[in-house]
Design goal:
Elements lengths: L5 H14 L95 E3 L15 H10 L18 E3 L32 E2 L9 H4 L2 E2 L19 E5 L10 E5 L4 E5 L10 E8 L2 E4 L8 E8 L2 E8 L4 E6 L1
Parallel strand pairs: 1-2, 3-4
Antiparallel strand pairs: 5-6, 5-12, 6-7, 7-8, 8-9, 9-10, 10-11, 11-12
Length: 323
């Protein structure tokens, strides 16, 4: 039997490879401006979807994945986001009255100016209803006792109105300047460490005990002497699962040549790193970053947006997207 060499098979293999279909990644869905009242999006993958200006009253987003979705100016009154993944989503200008965010993961979301209802915002009162014991017990059992694991870590909540039960809600490092939390229940039991507030924030808490940070008055856009004008300055979201990142993270690069790096947003007690950075040609170098290593940051503009590649002196790699 005559043997066939690999070289003889090569043309056939090349032809086969060319004929195979190239996988095409589905583009983010566009629902902008549509009337989607009562629409069921439960369990769907809606990463990057565009819902701008859509009518989404009573829509069901329970357990949906909506990372970086655009909900700007959408009508989301009475919508449900129970256990939804909302990291990086933009709700600027959206109507959120009575929307249910029970146990949602809303890290780094944009909620400036919105009205947020936490769990137990609407509690059925059994007083005066003349119910028998079993009916009253059934109603009581159906109500959310706490806010679950609702997370607004690093969220932009400037000028928000926050109502409902704030017990165990994660507001760590959120921007609460101008927010009204004066009517929120159990705010003293919320997680507020590192949250930013100003003289216009309304709440009744012991700020020292809560570990919140009083924001300095903005300096009308004037840079401080010696402040860097580097394009690296800003907030970067480290992408989980890309290169060596085992978790989502946040890197804040400041104009005063300092940085703050939270390598694991899922950690209950985050180990936030801080240090200094310096310029190195077109790149910058962060001293003593994640894993105690020195990291070189390279900035690139791609079709998906602006990205930052971080490479350590021991060849660890992270990729971050600009907020």
């Amino acid at each position: 039997m005559k043997k066939i060499t690999l070289l003889q098979l090569l043309p056939a293999l090349v032809a086969l490879a060319i004929s195979l279909p190239v996988p095409v990644h589905a583009a983010p869905k566009d629902y902008s401006g549509q009337d989607l009242q009562n629409k069921n999006f439960k369990d769907e993958n809606l990463n990057g979807a565009n819902f701008q200006g859509a009518n989404l009253q009573f829509a069901n987003f329970n357990n949906a994945t909506c990372k970086n979705a655009n909900f700007r100016d959408a009508d989301l009154r009475n919508a449900r986001f129970k256990e939804a993944m909302l990291e990086g989503a933009d709700f600027t200008g959206a109507k959120l009255a009575k929307a249910d965010f029970w146990s949602a993961k809303a890290r780094s979301v944009k909620l400036a100016g919105c009205e947020i209802y936490l769990a137990r915002a609407e509690i059925v009162s059994t007083k005066g209803l003349n119910l028998d014991y079993k009916a009253e017990a059934l109603i009581s059992a159906s109500q959310e006792a706490t806010s679950g694991t609702l997370t607004f870590h690093y969220a932009d909540m400037r000028n928000c109105l926050v109502l409902g039960n704030a017990e165990d809600v994660d507001f760590r490092d959120a921007d609460l300047r101008g927010a009204d939390l004066s009517k929120a229940e159990n705010l003293d039991k919320a997680r507020l460490k590192g949250a930013k507030y100003d003289e216009n924030t309304l709440w009744k808490i012991d700020t020292a005990k809560a570990g919140v940070v009083l924001a300095a008055k903005e300096n009308a856009g004037k840079a401080e002497p010696g402040a860097a004008k580097s394009p690296f300055v800003g907030k970067w979201l480290i992408i989980k699962g890309v290169e060596g990142a085992k978790d989502s993270g946040v890197l804040k690069i400041r104009a005063d040549h300092t940085y703050e790096w939270d390598p694991a947003l899922s950690a209950d007690k985050p180990d936030v790193l801080s240090g200094k950075w310096s310029e190195s040609g077109d790149n910058i170098v962060l001293d003593k970053g994640e894993l105690g290593q020195t990291w070189t940051a390279t900035r690139a503009t791609r079709s998906s947006g602006v990205e930052l590649q971080l490479k350590s002196d021991k060849n660890e790699v992270r990729v971050a997207a600009q907020e």
